[in-house]
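Structure (tokenized):
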């Protein structure tokens, strides 16, 4: 089926495939009419959660810990290490944490001991030896000055006895200044916290543990930390969500729980709620995902996929009425206690651990526009969401994830994919908001375009923040980043910024054209294996350009047709990049992106 797009549009088999993808996507809705998806099980999450439960109560939690360790044993890679997903290559962070978790295995469990020995051999190859100094150096080298994830790993290794005797082990860990958490959140951007904005719970819990295991000898510091501990523990309790799970994430919640338990706070309310979260989110096979779900994200992506091309049909709009109502209900209405985010944004999930962020707010605005562009209620929600995005925009014109002005560490900086998504949302509602807000959107869009112009690389590509590719050097996914940038910028064609945007669009499209694989699909970058997700995103972006080579789009759609997403999760690729560079896959991504590509390909033939 090697057809030009206009031929494809008239081809019954192509239309059948498009209709089948649409029907399957609609069938994936949950009973409440939304999409929840399914994230991959995570060796890292499983290791941290099991280790935390062991430290909270090794007797009561033994069954859960044993099931988790069995899952780790059964999902070790052939080289002795672990990757973040069962389809990922081994990496140092996950392998070290899994090795630490196996330290609590039953000494009579021969399978666990054999896997533990293989992990030691992997670590010895990666670090040069299993000496504590070599292991600590490997961890710190991986993350540089960002202590967000290096300190949690070192804490768990210390508690597992892998960094030497207790006194020596704690000397190897840079102290986290947990006392800074007592400051007002508006001050954090100025005091140079060594962790990113979302890691405040880990800063408090692990800093307290370090202080109690290895107090500072500097005059007055230990006294100050003792005095300020009640205040920071009060703040930790205040920002803990009702579910008990910080960011709905097993790793962050597990790190907090095990640190507080090791610091002598086993019965603290924060620990008790964290334990209930971990026990409540374990899967039947004994594993944990990297996060509970991405319900808002996959729901808004699904709506956008169904709306691509000629928009939602009246039938689909009626069927998706529950989504419209749900989006209006789940918009955050009060200042968020965790990040201090103002009202108006959306989080990646409707669960209590979600935090408003730029990407999900933009996605919700686009979905709401497709579902309900006219009612006063929808416009009021849209204006609130747009003002939230405007307040988040950094001085460089780009959009960060959670907090404006946190520019020192990677996951707090402006990034192209979020910025382009925000441009798309602002353009979608531009004509239907108040004149005052419209003028603000014009200024913000101009600044955002300026940021994207500076962020575009000389080869025409953009690199995203929250998505990557394990098979590309450096883990970047420039196919995703470039496709998302094009999908945002193409909405500005023919407008006042056209002269500035046109060269950026042309350069980005040329990058996609140069980096298509010989099989007609795309991977995350030059030479990376083709996947449904990346091929669909590239084809979607080129379709949106309208003037892209028809044969190139047709080959991409053909590749998707030959690798059509089927039931189950075997086709999903670990392209998602979670906090601290942890890979994940989402079962619905192939289906959503493929549906969007085929829906949008219709419009290119009109």
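Design, position by position:
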């Amino acid at each position: 089926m090697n057809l030009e797009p206009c031929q494809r549009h008239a081809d019954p088999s192509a239309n059948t495939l498009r209709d089948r993808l649409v029907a399957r996507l609609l069938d994936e809705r949950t009973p409440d009419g939304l999409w929840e998806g399914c994230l991959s099980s995570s060796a890292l999450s499983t290791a941290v959660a099991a280790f935390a439960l062991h430290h909270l109560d090794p007797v009561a939690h033994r069954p859960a810990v044993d099931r988790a360790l069995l899952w780790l044993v059964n999902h070790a890679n052939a080289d002795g290490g672990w990757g973040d997903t069962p389809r990922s290559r081994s990496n140092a962070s996950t392998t070290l944490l899994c090795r630490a978790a196996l330290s609590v295995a039953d000494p009579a469990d021969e399978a666990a001991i054999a896997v533990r020995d293989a992990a030691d051999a992997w670590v010895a190859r990666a670090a040069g030896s299993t000496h504590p100094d070599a292991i600590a150096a490997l961890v710190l080298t991986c993350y540089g000055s960002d202590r967000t994830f290096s300190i949690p790993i070192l804490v768990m290794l210390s508690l597992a006895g892998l960094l030497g005797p207790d006194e020596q082990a704690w000397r190897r860990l840079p102290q986290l200044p947990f006392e800074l958490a007592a400051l007002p959140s508006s001050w954090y951007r100025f005091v140079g916290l060594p962790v990113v904005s979302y890691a405040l719970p880990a800063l408090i819990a692990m800093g307290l543990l370090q202080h109690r295991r290895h107090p500072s000898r500097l005059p007055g510091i230990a006294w100050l930390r003792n005095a300020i501990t009640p205040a920071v523990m009060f703040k930790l309790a205040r920002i803990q969500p009702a579910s008990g799970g910080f960011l709905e994430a097993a790793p962050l919640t597990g790190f907090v729980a095990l640190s507080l338990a090791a610091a002598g706070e086993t019965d603290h309310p924060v620990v008790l709620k964290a334990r209930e979260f971990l026990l409540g989110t374990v899967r039947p096979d004994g594993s944990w995902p990297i996060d509970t779900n991405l319900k808002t994200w996959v729901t808004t992506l699904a709506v956008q996929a169904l709306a691509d091309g000629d928009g939602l049909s009246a039938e689909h709009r009626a069927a998706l009425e529950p989504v419209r109502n749900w989006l209006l209900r789940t918009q955050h209405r009060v200042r968020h206690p965790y990040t201090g985010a103002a009202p108006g944004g959306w989080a990646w999930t409707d669960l209590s651990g979600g935090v408003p962020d730029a990407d999900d707010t933009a996605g919700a605005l686009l979905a709401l526009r497709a579902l309900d562009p006219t009612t006063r209620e929808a416009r009021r929600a849209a204006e609130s969401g747009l003002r939230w995005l405007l307040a988040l925009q950094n001085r460089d014109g780009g959009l960060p994830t959670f907090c404006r002005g946190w520019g020192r560490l990677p996951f707090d900086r402006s990034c192209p994919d979020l910025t382009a998504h925000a441009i798309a949302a602002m353009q979608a509602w531009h004509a239907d908001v108040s004149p005052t807000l419209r003028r603000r959107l014009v200024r913000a869009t101009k600044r955002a375009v300026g940021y994207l112009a500076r962020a575009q690389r000389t080869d025409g590509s953009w690199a995203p923040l929250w998505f990557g590719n394990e098979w590309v050097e450096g883990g970047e996914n420039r196919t995703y980043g470039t496709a998302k940038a094009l999908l945002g910028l193409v909405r500005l064609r023919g407008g006042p910024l056209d002269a500035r945007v046109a060269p950026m669009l042309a350069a980005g499209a040329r990058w996609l054209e140069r980096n298509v694989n010989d099989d007609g699909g795309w991977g995350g970058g030059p030479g990376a294996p083709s996947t449904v997700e990346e091929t669909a995103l590239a084809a979607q972006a080129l379709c949106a350009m309208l003037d892209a080579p028809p044969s190139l789009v047709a080959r991409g759609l053909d590749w998707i047709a030959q690798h059509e997403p089927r039931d189950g999760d075997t086709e999903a690729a670990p392209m998602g990049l979670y906090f601290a560079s942890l890979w994940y896959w989402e079962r619905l991504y192939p289906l959503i992106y493929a549906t969007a590509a085929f829906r949008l390909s219709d419009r290119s033939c009109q």
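Reviewer-requested clarification: The domain at 309-455 is CATH 1.50.10.20 (Glycosyltransferase). The chain has three domains: 1-31+462-606, 42-289, 309-455.
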